[in-house]
Sequence to fold (506 residues):
Amino acid sequence: MGTRKTATAKSEQQDLSLSEQPDSYFRKSRFSALGSDFYSEVSPTPLTAPFWVSCNTSAARLIGASPKELFGEQGLLLFSGNREIPGIKPIAMLYSGHQFGVYVPQLGDGRALLLGEAQGSEKNMEIQIKGAGQTPYSRGADGRAVLRSNIREYLCSEAMHALGIPTTRALCITASHDPVYREEKETAAILTRLSPSHVRFGHFELFYYRQQPHLSLHLANFIISHYYPELQHEPKRLMSWLKQVGIRTARLIAKWQSVGFTHGVLNTDNMSILGLTLDYGPFGFMDSYQHNFVCNHTDTHGRYAFSQQPRIGLWNLHALVQSLSFHLTQDETLEILETYTPVFEETWLGIMRAKLGLMTVQPDDETLILDLLDLLDRNRIDYTRFMRQLSRFNSSAQPHDNSALRDTFPDRDSFDAWANRYARRLSQENSHPVERALHMNQVNPKYILRNYLADLAIQQARQGDFSEIDRLLALLQHPYDEQPDNGHYADLPPEWASSLDLSCSS
Ligand code: AMP
Ligand code: MG
Fold:
């Protein structure tokens, strides 16, 4: 931890007029009013000679800020840890959590600092810098984040938002040539992210295991009053709130499943109390469909495999509910937990029906969908491309006439058998094929952040060329549009993509 300021930082600060100060957007976070049981005040450790990597103007607007003011020289100093906002001390939040099923008594922000809060047009947004140096919760690690992992989080959080999946947002990346050591020597960067709240399930677990139930209740009341105000006056408000957290979590994971997203590290400290996708590490969108896709190579048992995510969501909800069990009856606990699975199933089925262009509900729909996924899994078919192309399925043709789809299957007979069933099912719909295709293209993205695309942007960024980050950002902000000039971004991944390896190191 340090308060070192570069000489340039100081002189540039003096040169700038007040109109270029981003400070006016910031105020103390409401979280900081909870008091010192919940966090530590920490000064960031500055990046040396920082430079911009990418600035997300749409996220700037989210906090009502002018991109020009945010992304000027003062912003560079602020978002690279070289400057603090006068009167607002950055804070590292304290939490714990279950990592790979094992309780870790203390985690906390080991490298992230909350700079404050900004008032957006719709919501207040906490502003957090990630990779800003050591904190009391760093547990011996360096407090840094590498450029590679920042680029991945930056692009993916914006891609998820555009896909309609709840997520934290990404404002900008600053970087420097400071070395950071992971599996190899890399360089340091800081991601600035935005979220209405960064509170995790693990915040509550900390106070349960420390036997401080009054603090978990205090935090729960804070979260309810600020983020679930509609529940304030519910007679059983704690239970109603936890049910809502369960519902949001179930819906979130249903959405992940529908786009083939695997989080990779679904520890309880990475679970947002608002049901947002949080802490992008070794995540992955599947290329070819695999039920048991594991994106994180350190997850040797596949605890967080794609197919396990719905179950893990419930496991994590259980951990959260247990951490508030001092304040709940057994019946209430059961009621909360029993809400999760039906919400997950209903949401997932609803989305998958829409992806198949089914507007009506038929009893065999779930089997039809599950059989399709089995088929894709057995034939190793690219999930995103298949689903997108399905809008062109001609239900009045013979299956082998749907050759664009059919020819991708090594086992054509298995495709034909499913296609016959799908054609029959579509005939019950009475929908017009053109209209159906339009609807399907609004729920089956053409563009996702394939691992290899992120990797190409990272390779170029390491050479000092950040243009591919901005290109991908613009592309992924419109994942459902055809974007004919960018068609190659929806191609099958190249051969080398299958050898890319992701670990927890970030
Ligand atoms: P993550 O795997 O990024 O969700 O992080 C798990 C825990 O380790 C959190 O408490 C992080 O703050 C902490 N952590 C991860 N990487 C670092 C790092 N390089 N320096 C300090 N703490 C870290
Ligand atoms: Mg984390």
Observations:
- The pocket of adenosine monophosphate (ligand 1) is lined by residues 107-111, 137-138, 141-144, 265, 270, 279, 281, 504, 506 (CB under 6 Å).
